[in-house]
Request: fold
Amino acid sequence: MALTHTKTLSILAPAKVNLYLHVIDRRADGLHLLDSLVAFADIGDHVKIESAPEFDFAVKGPFANSFALTEQSSYADSENIVVRAAHGLANLSGNKLDCKITLTKNLPIASGIGGGSSDAAACIWGLMKRWGVSPQAPFLNDLLLALGADVPVCFSCQATVMRGIGEELMSLKVFPETPILLINPRVSCSTAEIFRNLNVQKGEYINVPEQFNDVYALSEFLHQMDNHMYSTALTKLPVLADVINALQAQDECLVTRMSGSGATCFALFPTDQAAAKAAEKIAIQHPGWWVKSGWLGRPERY
Reply:
């Protein structure tokens, strides 16, 4: 059922964290086949949808100034993925874009935690609620994947094994609420550039357990995994080693890794107190870094 069009929706677009990320092959068309365990944090951007006579789009928040003018346009040819998502869903579902969308950009740009993809997924979720579009709409999966490889998993917004080019998704049955610390040294990292320079070694998909009962089981599994993009990203951004070292030096840190193509790195902790203490300590030592603690597995998205 559609919501009344006077209702304002405020939607969390959570950070997507690649707990491991393996690149197992490159297809003939140049696209890479991935194998990754993805989870979502209660740290993220916000998408607000409110009624308006004509479609409008605005960006605010601590990272709003990172957007070029072409990424702030509300037209269908906008370079902003949220605007393209809105126009795409409106066209496919036969609805008029009778709203204003405001994106509050809290996550760093091009940071390996799926900010743009999560923003687009949150926009589509909200507009579907607004217009009463069924989650089983035949065009939905193609729309999500056309917007980007990470958009389908961001739309599902739950701990998931993601394979292929992002189209193969397998949700975990049990995933523990897990304290996490995210750090970005406030440098962007081009995913396309990392892929271009990546030395791909053909591999196999990982047999991921259907459930992890606690953070210790999850951490033990992750210690056997890797991020195949890290070494390539490190040659471009040596500061990544400083971030990893700072995380590993924290009391009670269980596992550390870079997420996605970087430059955001994460650490898991047994308690939220330990994560918060580590965040406070690192923020003092590195005042120029973006440092946030929170939880995986409880995004409270909608």
